[in-house]
Write a structure and sequence with these properties.
This protein is of the alpha+beta class and 319 residues long. It is built from nine helices and 16 strands. Helix 3 packs across helix 4 (97-111).
C-alpha cells in the first residue's frame, strides 16, 4: 500500500510539472521551433549529444525570462546576466547582447508567444570529454513557450507553504554563486523534491552560515512588526532581476528596505513573507515550517505594483 501511494504521489507531481507548459505533452515533444546556434530548428529536433560537457560537468548557464503582452520584461538585463554567468564559468558566448536579444524576440514571434516564458541556455559541447574542455564549442539555444504562474492561482490569496531544506547554499569561495549556472540548482531540485514529498510547495534555503538565503528559485522578503521590508544580503545567491524591481517599487511607496543577515528564528516576528522571481513573480508565503503569515497590505501592494509594471491586469483593476 505504501509503495502504491508513493508511486501515485510521484505520478501526480510529474503530471503537474508536465502540464505547467499548458500542454499535455512533455517538454521535448512540444510544437514550434527553437533558436539553436543561429538557426531555427523544429522543436523535436533540437538535440545535443549524450557526451556533451554541459551535461556531465555542469558547464552550462541559463536565463528565465517572461513575455507580457508581446514584450519580454527587462530583456537586456537578462541577456547581460547570461553573458556574465558564462564568463564566470570561463567561457564566452559567441553572440553579442544585441544578437541574443534579437533571437529572444524572434523565437517568441515564430512561436506566437505573447504571454509566456523564454529560456536561453548556453553550454560547452562534446569535442572533449573530461574535466578540462577548453577546446569545446560553445552553444546557445533559446526556447519559448506559454507558461502560467509558477505556483497555483490560489497562492496569491492564501500564500504558499515552505519547508526548510537540509541542503544549504554554498559559500562564495566554493562556487560562482552569482552566476545563473546549472550546477548551482542541483541542491535546489533535491530540496524542492523533498518539500513536495512532504506536501509543501517549495523549500526555504539557508546559507552555509545558517542564515536565511532564498527559496529554490526565488528571492525572499520579510515584513517584520516595524512594517519595514527585510531581505537577506545577496552575497551567496542571485541578486534577482525581479528582486531589484520589487525593491524599486517598494521605495516608490516609501517602504524602507533593510538588507541584512536574517536568522530562521526571526520568522517568529514576521507578519508577511513573499517571494520574488521571474517565474514566481511576487508570490506570498503563508507558512514556513511551523510559522504562519498573512497576505498583508504590503504584499498586496507590491503584487499589484509588479503586475502593473510588467503590463498585467492587477487585482485592483479586476475589482
Amino acid at each position: 500500500m505504501l509503495t502504491s501511494a508513493i508511486t501515485l504521489s510521484v505520478k501526480l507531481i510529474l503530471r503537474k510539472i508536465i502540464t505547467m507548459s499548458g500542454d499535455d505533452k512533455a517538454f521535448d515533444s512540444l510544437e514550434g521551433e527553437i533558436w539553436f546556434d543561429g538557426k531555427m530548428l523544429p522543436w523535436v529536433e533540437a538535440d545535443v549529444h549524450v557526451l556533451t560537457h554541459g551535461l556531465h560537468y555542469a558547464s552550462c548557464v541559463f536565463e528565465g525570462e517572461r513575455s507580457y503582452n508581446g514584450k519580454i520584461f527587462k530583456l537586456r538585463e537578462h541577456t547581460e546576466r547570461l553573458i556574465m554567468s558564462a564568463n564566470a564559468l570561463g567561457f564566452e558566448i559567441p553572440y553579442s547582447a544585441d544578437e541574443i536579444d534579437e533571437a529572444c524576440v524572434k523565437i517568441c514571434n515564430v512561436n506566437g508567444i505573447v504571454d509566456g516564458y523564454i529560456r536561453p541556455v548556453a553550454w560547452r559541447g562534446s569535442e572533449m570529454m573530461g574535466v578540462s574542455a577548453q577546446a569545446n564549442t560553445i552553444h546557445l539555444a533559446i526556447a519559448a513557450w506559454p507558461w502560467p504562474s509558477y505556483f497555483s492561482p490560489e497562492a496569491r490569496t492564501k500564500g504558499i507553504r515552505l519547508k526548510t531544506a537540509e541542503w544549504r547554499r554554498p559559500a562564495p569561495n566554493t562556487a560562482p554563486v552569482h552566476a545563473k549556472a546549472a550546477g548551482l540548482y542541483m541542491i535546489c531540485t533535491l530540496s524542492k523534491h523533498a518539500a513536495e514529498a512532504d506536501g509543501y510547495d517549495d523549500a526555504l534555503m539557508l546559507d552555509w552560515r545558517g542564515q536565511i538565503a532564498e527559496s529554490t528559485g526565488a528571492n525572499i522578503f520579510i515584513v517584520m512588526g516595524d512594517d519595514r521590508l527585510h531581505t537577506p544580503i545577496p552575497d551567496c545567491f542571485l541578486d534577482g532581476i525581479t528582486r531589484k524591481t520589487v525593491c524599486e517599487l517598494a521605495k516608490k511607496r516609501g517602504i524602507e528596505i533593510i538588507e541584512r543577515a536574517i536568522m530562521p528564528a526571526e520568522l517568529g516576528s514576521a507578519t508577511e513573507v513573499f517571494l520574488t522571481g521571474t517565474a514566481a513573480e511576487v508570490t506570498p508565503v503563508g507558512e514556513i515550517d511551523n510559522y504562519k503569515f498573512t497576505v498583508g497590505e504590503i504584499t498586496r501592494f507590491l503584487i499589484d505594483d509588479y503586475d502593473r509594471v510588467v503590463g498585467k491586469k492587477t487585482t485592483a483593476d479586476a475589482g
